[in-house]
């Protein structure tokens, strides 16, 4: 599904290039659950943003399904991204001015989904994740865990094939974190959504089938795990 | 999608009330000003347009060259109209009038004074006054016909049918009402309450019909559509110059569409007129709207850090830049629309006030298709301009950077905002300077030495009866003990009615073709008007004092007389002796140099009584005595009077109006700038709240904190001053060029207005920052 080849990214600091990512080669197949780990500043977020097409590398190629991403024009790339990728952030990043319902609905607006269809989809999700009662509240009226739940629902609403999560539990306590991780696992197993998450916690990383360890912008090691039995 | 934009826009407006109110009031004031100005402009542009054929109507005017000084005049020979119609097929109709005068209309016991025009029969063939009763076409066929306006007819006859009623005019002749026309619109160059035909069998008209030299009337013509006016101008000049004194005058047609706005002539060339103010205020309207838009841009982008996150999230959720642009534009459109609705309300509320201020009858017709079109344009343009920068700026945010949380606008991000603030400051300096200068100029001219004393001087129109009894009236007035001198003049002191070639004297250069103003006056001219005598004496009440004249200083200088007193002047078929030289008396434009003038002693008929009150006499008290005396000796006329100083002040109507308008709109524009500045400081301070708290903990005093915050704005004001001073100087210098009698621009004007802007800025910044500076740092630091 995802194939990164010779991805490098650098910034010019004081005339000298400083590498943030260096010659990254990764392959992720559909249905996988991958965790990315590494010390602070090792380039995890940058890598995730590149996979998520929010950021461009300085060098390298990126194959998404059978599309060469960097050969596409901006418009098509956005199209590809809109249809296939959902994002979850450590800081939730809900729109403060919108209610829970409207936050969840927003990605559908950008995909020109019809109003009636939107309604059905959002209600369905609210039901599924048990947050119907909260749909008219604003983000500031929710707890951190609830906000992240809304963030996840929002990321899933458009039925993405790939879910990218940057420290999704970073701002939550361990119990809330565990709930979110269980949810990820469920989504991955039941719906076949490919998940790439960045995390600092070993325990959370273990939910993944594979752990990619970054150090100073390089892939230091990849630890494979056998598929868990359902 | 659009619904979602509206929703979020609405919530943003609601959530940030202070921000929204600042933005909305700025835009509302801006739009209100713009609408008021445009209403005024529209009214000015619509003058005389109510005549369906306005494009084909012209006034015949003439440039007369006297020794190189070209005088543009509306007075043309009386027989010209007839001749034009007879000779040129392009001329559909031609007519004349006598500029009008006040007449007394009497019906039964009702006596009223109204403005009347004596006109030739074809008047209504050229102009199309709306007829209420009767038919205008034949209404002036008989010399005893009179046309009245509706309100005049109502004053005379009440609700009775005016047609066929006989009214007595000026106590000597009877006229029959032949038609009633609607009241002349306020935006008509020609104004009257009654139209009377010239009487073709009267001696005066008979004589005038062949007189190609003396001109007392103006001529209007209606052309066939598509006539070549330039060619016709030449033909008219040839025709008119072939009669009378065979001069080389240049006749030309001045189109009706230009009467109101292009009425000024200099050296025989049209130099515009009111149009420059129409343009000026259109520009001011645009500037005010622009300032309001700049406010919106500044405040919206200042707030942008708060919205950066929203932009970032939307982008990660799949929004394209286009969609974000649309979102932000729809927000500014909503602001623009709400502001528009508010300002329509404001215009309705303020219009009566505005009307009384500018002495007009403007009204807003919201169902007028033109208004609707303009309104939509106003809303869209304002929305687009105000929204452009915020939309482009906000939608350009990089989501990765923004969401990383390390997004900082940085130094460069605030540069456009600073540019806009500098622009606002510059405009403020310009506006303040202009307001001060306009005021200075008006005061300067009002304070000009007029050469006489217009205060406590009363002018009373004369009549046949009053002239007969002039001597008795004078004596009784003096006997009241309230009056120090009385004279009579052929024209008001505040105007010149008669320009004439200079008299002949011994030693006059051969081809000296001098033109000067002439007026006739009774004895005590100098004493009554308070004219300073430079040489010689006033007209005296002695039997020997006949055939004498006064000259003014300018006349002596232009005639190059060395020892004028006692000189003989041949004027017409009479000889006059120069007995006195007065200082230059400002009679016409207070902005122009005084023209050469002669005053001839005339002891019989005159148009006005001038009454000089003693110093310290209360005018009201004196007037009741004066009225009694005039009622006694002039019983057929209602007593009427005016104060000469008030007459004189009429000359400042335009400048006073311009002064008032600049004050008003400059004030409002500056207010909008202040609003914006206030909002901007509030944001700056909000952003620096934590920094201020930290500095305070570290021991900064409130004064140091205030300075820290205001420093940024100080630089901007200084920069604005540097930019705007040359521009302002250039604009004001050009404006003053239009006045021959004018103030000079001094450095203090700029120093004053810059200081004003600086002071205003500091007050606003300090008021806003005091809260932050006084706040307990513990609170501001804990909130992080
Ligand atoms: N604009 C930039 N210019 C220069 N260096 C940058 C820039 N943006 C990021 N970096 C550097 O790139 C490196 C990788 O950043 P990144 O956010 O990917 O790290 P991370 O692994 O996600 O760290 P963390 O665990 O703290 O979130 C960091 O060392 C950072 O200093
Ligand atoms: Mg990171």
From TrEMBL, chain A:
Keyword Thylakoid: no
Source organism, top-level taxon: Bacteria
Residues making up the signal peptide according to the UniProt record: none
Entry keyword set: ATP-binding, Lipoprotein, Nucleotide-binding, Translocase, Transport
Originating species: Flavisolibacter ginsengisoli DSM 18119
PANTHER family to which the protein is assigned, alphabetical: CELL DIVISION ATP-BINDING PROTEIN FTSE, LIPOPROTEIN-RELEASING SYSTEM ATP-BINDING PROTEIN LOLD
Protein name: ABC-type lipoprotein export system, ATPase component
GO cellular component terms given for this protein: membrane protein complex
Family: Belongs to the ABC transporter superfamily. Macrolide exporter (TC 3.A.1.122) family.
Automatic annotation (TrEMBL), chain B:
Molecular functions (GO terms): transmembrane transporter activity
Membrane topology: Multi-pass membrane protein
Keywords in alphabetical order: Cell membrane, Membrane, Transmembrane, Transmembrane helix
A Pfam cross-reference name: FtsX
TM spans (from-to): 21-41, 280-299, 324-351, 371-394, 419-439, 664-685, 713-733, 745-767
Chief location of this protein within or outside the cell: membrane
MacB-like periplasmic core domain residues: 20-236, 436-628
Gene Ontology CC terms, in alphabetical order: plasma membrane
Domain ABC3 transporter permease C-terminal: 283-399, 664-775
Coiled coil (UniProt feature): none
Provenance organism: Flavisolibacter ginsengisoli DSM 18119
Entry-linked InterPro entries: ABC3_permease_C (IPR003838), MacB_PCD (IPR025857), Macrolide_Exporter_MacB (IPR050250)
Compartments (UniProt record): Cell membrane
Protein name: FtsX-like permease family protein
